[in-house]
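Database export, one record per block. Field names are fixed; values are copied verbatim from the stored entry.
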Amino acid sequence: MADVKRVERPLSPHLQIYRPQLTSITSILTRITGNGLIVGTILAVWWLLSAAVSPEYFAFADAVATSWFGDIVFTLSAWALWYHYLAGIRHLIYDSGRGLDIPTAEKLGWACIFGSVVLTALTVIIV
């Protein structure tokens, strides 16, 4: 067999060396909120379906949905919905060929984060 000569290559830098970029964080948040919406949807569907089972089961599901746990899940679901919506608008802007430079992309990322928090607060106050 031929002699295999190992090439000395530098190791890839570890993730701790790099500072997280806002665009990567917002991309990860979009994925997390998309999956997080499933939790709120499951709780809401369970609450609705429990009404078809029996009054006792609905009372149990209603107690869970209106407890502190349900309040947290539905509030976080509202934030996830608003964030996901604003991130979708941001991607429509990207798809039109605008906002692709780094300063504008970062402004749009911050707009998604702060906008979703403000819209969630308004939703909780109004509803």
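Remark 1: The chain has one domain: 22-126.
Remark 2: Residues 99 and 105 are 6 Å apart (CA to CA).
End of record.
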